[in-house]
Amino acid sequence: MRAIVIGAGMFGASTALQLARSGVEVTVYDHGHPGKATMAGAGIVCPWATQVEEPKWYEMYAAGARFYGDLVGYLDAQGERDLGYRKVGALVTSENRADFDAAGARIAARVKTAPEAGEVQLLSPAEAQAKFPVLKGDLPAWFLPGGARVDARLLSAAMLRAAVALGARYHSDYVTLERREDGVILRDGQGARLEADEIIVAGGAWAAQILAPLGIDHPVKPQKGQIVHLRLNGTATADWPVLLPMSSYYMLTFDDSRVVVGATRENDSGFDYRVTAAGQAEVLGAGMALCPGLAQAELIETRIGFRPAGPTIKPIFGRVPGIAGLSVANGLGAGGISIGPYAGKLLADLLTGAPAEQDLSPYAPGA
Amino acid sequence: MRAIVIGAGMFGASTALQLARSGVEVTVYDHGHPGKATMAGAGIVCPWATQVEEPKWYEMYAAGARFYGDLVGYLDAQGERDLGYRKVGALVTSENRADFDAAGARIAARVKTAPEAGEVQLLSPAEAQAKFPVLKGDLPAWFLPGGARVDARLLSAAMLRAAVALGARYHSDYVTLERREDGVILRDGQGARLEADEIIVAGGAWAAQILAPLGIDHPVKPQKGQIVHLRLNGTATADWPVLLPMSSYYMLTFDDSRVVVGATRENDSGFDYRVTAAGQAEVLGAGMALCPGLAQAELIETRIGFRPAGPTIKPIFGRVPGIAGLSVANGLGAGGISIGPYAGKLLADLLTGAPAEQDLSPYAPGA
Amino acid sequence: MRAIVIGAGMFGASTALQLARSGVEVTVYDHGHPGKATMAGAGIVCPWATQVEEPKWYEMYAAGARFYGDLVGYLDAQGERDLGYRKVGALVTSENRADFDAAGARIAARVKTAPEAGEVQLLSPAEAQAKFPVLKGDLPAWFLPGGARVDARLLSAAMLRAAVALGARYHSDYVTLERREDGVILRDGQGARLEADEIIVAGGAWAAQILAPLGIDHPVKPQKGQIVHLRLNGTATADWPVLLPMSSYYMLTFDDSRVVVGATRENDSGFDYRVTAAGQAEVLGAGMALCPGLAQAELIETRIGFRPAGPTIKPIFGRVPGIAGLSVANGLGAGGISIGPYAGKLLADLLTGAPAEQDLSPYAPGA
Amino acid sequence: MRAIVIGAGMFGASTALQLARSGVEVTVYDHGHPGKATMAGAGIVCPWATQVEEPKWYEMYAAGARFYGDLVGYLDAQGERDLGYRKVGALVTSENRADFDAAGARIAARVKTAPEAGEVQLLSPAEAQAKFPVLKGDLPAWFLPGGARVDARLLSAAMLRAAVALGARYHSDYVTLERREDGVILRDGQGARLEADEIIVAGGAWAAQILAPLGIDHPVKPQKGQIVHLRLNGTATADWPVLLPMSSYYMLTFDDSRVVVGATRENDSGFDYRVTAAGQAEVLGAGMALCPGLAQAELIETRIGFRPAGPTIKPIFGRVPGIAGLSVANGLGAGGISIGPYAGKLLADLLTGAPAEQDLSPYAPGA
Question: Which residue ranges run through the membrane (chains A, B, C, D) (predicted)?
């Protein structure tokens, strides 16, 4: 089987890797759009605290987190260890007491069936601050030892390399699709025709544009996020947990004294690549309000990503009805880092005819 | 009339400006692709030495250069003076005596009808070096006082601003086209429908992708160029002429001690945004061979641009047959800086029904 | 006479240029410290509204502004026009009525003897907003037609180039000074001895470090400024006046749709090169409070500069008592852009024995 | 004991860490000069092939490599794993047969007493290319399994963080020294006096400047290196060995598809921070000649570093005679990555009175 994967973000790179592991002849095309969500993605893997209650989605979210153990182990065996991945635990807190208690109740219910979350602890404000030293001093927190962080940019690159090491090919180019009587025609940026048995459109926020020529009205739109990277020079941040304050913001750290604060959620952005005065001020303000110790941190970078947001929170992936050999892999929104690797595995299983781990029909395009 | 211009490179920005000057209600969409040819374009305006002999194309090329006087004057009156434009003259030389003589003959024939070229002078090697101090010392040169240079990035931004000042709107977004029974549907990056009486696709190397959903096989492909920017700290380079060594390379300077050396011509590049080891070495090597004094210059930047190259050297612009209200503006290749502003004027005249300055039928899409 | 100028910021570059114009054999050394105040400097030339009342300093400040006409004219004649200079006028406003009235009174008194300020006008809020379209709509303003803006980075580079064109030499290196019985020894970064009749230390915030080996306790310290550059894509900003809201902040624009908002004043910063979360948020907050229309502007850059701040507002320049052939040129603080070019002229006159335009003894080192 | 370490490069950061481990109260000042050798350093740890024969220096070089095992283990235990360190082995080759044989003889003699080098293998051209796929196909190679690579930038930052975690303080600032009758006075960038029992000047190429005010003629000069970073997108390079072609060039890879090619050795550079046309072309040319497969690699960055080069190859470190409480730590030149961490340990032992692992008198300042 020859497959062409369009898009090497989290979902596409995982699909490509899992197909290659199954012996499929894979070619990956990625246009390198600067606003690719994966390249900006912060990388929290901690499903148990989410405020989203939809059960089917939560099941996918939790399974995605569980899948990380397998994936990281596999990549390590391939020599790919530069992923920014570390199981540092998660601090869940809130400035609102009722929200804090509700989070505790949610977590308690969910971890019963999730031993990988570890034993939840209630931390005093001082204990919470000891784990995340820039945090303000009056907030208790739930600590979940199983929470992890990852650098989406590094992880997707590593999955792609692992696919290439198995024989996949990779091109920095785009692909256009056209509909003909007898199927779909693919062309690369030079206009040359490409041949494939399976085409997987994993183009994220750009997928609607890629699919439009086929008459498909793909309901995924860009949701812009601005995410700020700070540095606390000289400070060892490798072991700080991810911080989830039960708002639309969050924080996590990397080994190089970096603290990441995310993110705006701009629904009507279209493709506007600009870091804006308002977006920057919003994220910095939210970060410093929760963590006054960040005021003197160095601002090293602000990243822009366009999350691929569907009409509902559920992903959209599977075969496109009525067009043989065409699949889509999209719609993960802000959940792409947690779900993407696992969803790529599910889609690869579907395309290679491997037994399904779960019923994927709710996610089918057009469903 | 409401017009939507897709693409704000040299051709699109000029079309938008000229339409706005004619009272058209213009909206410009530009996706900000990092490899836009205009953003990398070096900016030589000197038609008289070109090795291209095709008469119809040369006529357009020469008229494009003549048009600069009007354009720069107009923009100046609007307060737009930050264009990097200066009439510094051009040095035409060659390491090959026969090529040098042939260039002299071509120039002599052409400037007869081009008083704006000024009086051509034959310079001794020492005189040539006096004008371009890093040049090697054994090359005579033809000097054409009328040659000019411009910063394509600044000029296109200035034309866009001048259009906006006249009421045009500008969005950093992309537009997709779909064909329906009754015409073309446009959508922005959010999927919202846009309305226009005239659509001008000035998407450069990306135009084929934009037009494919309409079933149009637009024959323009990307030709990658890598172009190097050097700095001679402390050296006044504002008055150095452009340097045309009758090869595929060239040099020009800007006021800020910058020397620009161009460029690779990579025809099978597709959309590959990378500065490559080989491309960088090629351009630096060519530059230092001709101008040994560049060896100790600072390397400040290498730009990548995808020139929109059609099957022949001639531009492709005008109304698309069979689809009401759709025009294209493309195919200028390496000539975009010289021709783009003028071609935008011609196209705007065509769309607004102004008298044609010349017969545009050879450039019509599909011609 | 052979002079070595250490530092090519506004003060040093001007001194070098004026010495070169007087026939002095000048060599300039500049280490290229990334935090050089001149490189970050925003560039307002509008002395008449300042809240500083000290008469001697104000006289210098006003004379510095007057000097710009000569300087810009001279540079233009040398082919140096890429200075970011434009006489756009100044809008003086305040959110506080009493401060606004006081500013009006100060301006009225000062412009009597400053015809170059032009005729002051009182603008209604709507008129003020018409001149600076992102400004909030409820602030009246004084408009001074003679106010100007300049890009300090471009201007200092242009002065340096003009000096080089007159025969000066320029090295990207540092110089160390040592005291010996018989005078001062200079060495370059390689340790080689340099010879000069006159040494001018124009090292800005670094001058204390350069002079310490001579046993000189030079009282100039770094005052850190963080300054934000925004872009209003597509908007023609070339003619917007500078905006002086009678606070520690200010705004000005450049031709390329850029709006500059300055600046923090961090007195205990030492040499801390970091853009900080707090500094960024402070400047953005101040800018958006005054100009709500900046919220959707693109954040393109934040610059750091260390202003050389002396113990009082007055500059420190002239010959160092007791050490033959050593001068300093420093202490301009936030006034470096207005005063620097003129002060360089005064110092060059002093060193070449030209008649003094004013009594410089109040500025003498050690005075 | 209170120690102040000036400079946080490889040598300074290691000294700070080892002092902190011994209970010393350490403060580190680093001015963040952009050309710090450590920040550009490529990171080869493979002493056994060096063409340098000086026995005393070789002993230090070999011991430095051995020390890496301890250091990496210690840092790992502190949670610091983001070092770019990996024991990938080393390929030693040469285009010259005699040089190749001589290298083999040197290696054979040296590894007898260096079990950590692993078992040396002679590889055929095909085998060598299999390990380093972009290498040309006609070169046999010696393979030393014990060779390693490290990212000097990450390692020095990690050592600094580990010191801070033990209580050390870190300031992004510079320090000036002055001599007084009764000793040395230190001041920070604000001019405030600092107190310390031990001052360690680890300022690399800048140390001569720091020490000059004390009347010390420190014989270390900057040797400029330009080093090129390429990327082979999609290629797994994590396990490629370092490549030592017995010239002044070398190559190594990092996990993120990066290939580093080093470096120019510019002895008369002074502090010239510029990437030059000639330097860039030289390194790219050398890299592509040996490894044709790099031609299509992406050029992602060129780094500049000023190696601190003494009059001979031997390091200069220890107490400064005649000035109580002052030490220097410098002169490692191109060997800083191999030797720096170990030399920091030796110096810390000396200052804390721990037993000496070897006789340090040959390295003493002034020796």
Answer: none
Q: Which residues are bridge partners to D148 per DSSP?
A: D45
Is C298's CB within 8 Å of A284's CB? no
pLDDT score of D367: 74
Edge-to-edge strands, sheet with B250-254: B121-123, B141-144, B90-92, B242-244, B250-254, B258-262, B221-231, B298-309
| B34, B215, B268 member nearest A190 (Cβ) | B268
* CATH architecture, domain D86-146+223-309: 2-Layer Sandwich (3.30)
Largest separation between any pair of C-alpha atoms in chain B: 68
**pLDDT tens digits, one per residue of C36-64:** 777 787 799 999 999 998 999 999 999 99
Domain boundaries along the sequence of chain B: 2-39+153-220+312-363, 86-146+221-309
Q: Does B296 contact chain D (CB < 8 Å)?
A: yes
Name the burial class of residue B367, with classes exposed (0-12), middle (13-18) and buried (19+) by CB atoms within 10 angstroms of its CB: exposed
Q: Minimal Cα distance from B190: which residue of A?
A: A270
* The residue type at C184: V
Q: What 3-state DSSP class applies to D30?
A: coil
Q: Is A116 helix (H, G, I), strand (E, B) or coil?
A: helix
Q: Which DSSP helix (H) or strand (E) runs through C5?
A: strand C2-6
Task: State how far the alpha carbon of A87 is from the alpha carbons of A144, A253, A254, B284, in Å.
Answer: 10, 12, 11, 47
Q: What is the CATH number of domain C2-39+153-220+312-363?
A: 3.50.50.60
What pLDDT, in 10s, does the model give residues B106-154? 999 999 999 999 999 999 999 999 999 999 999 999 999 999 999 999 9
Nearest to B164 among C154, C164, C235 (CB): C235
Choose the CATH number for C85-147+223-309 among 3.30.9.10, 3.10.25.10, 3.30.930.10, 3.40.50.1000. 3.30.9.10
The pLDDT assigned to A34 comes to 65
Distance from CA of A307 to the nearest CA of B (A): 12
Q: Which residues pair with A266 in a beta bridge?
A: A224
Q: How far apart are CA A59 and CA A113, in angstroms?
A: 11
Does the CB of B233 have a partner CB in chain D at under 8 Å?
Answer: yes
Q: Which residues of A touch D75 (CB under 8 A)?
A: none
Distance from CA of A269 to the nearest CA of C (A): 11
Average pLDDT over residues A174-189: 86
Tally of CB atoms within 10 A around B231: 18
Write the residue in B277, B294, B298 that is nearest to D230 by C-beta.
B277
CA atoms in the 13 A half-sphere facing the CB of A234: 21
pLDDT digits (tens, 9 = 90+) for D213-237: 888 989 999 999 999 999 998 899 9
Helices (H) and strands (E) in chain C, counts: 9, 19
- A86-146+221-309: CATH homologous superfamily? D-Amino Acid Oxidase, subunit A, domain 2 (3.30.9.10)
What does A63-84 look like in DSSP terms, one character per residue? HHHHHHHHHHHHHHHTT---S-
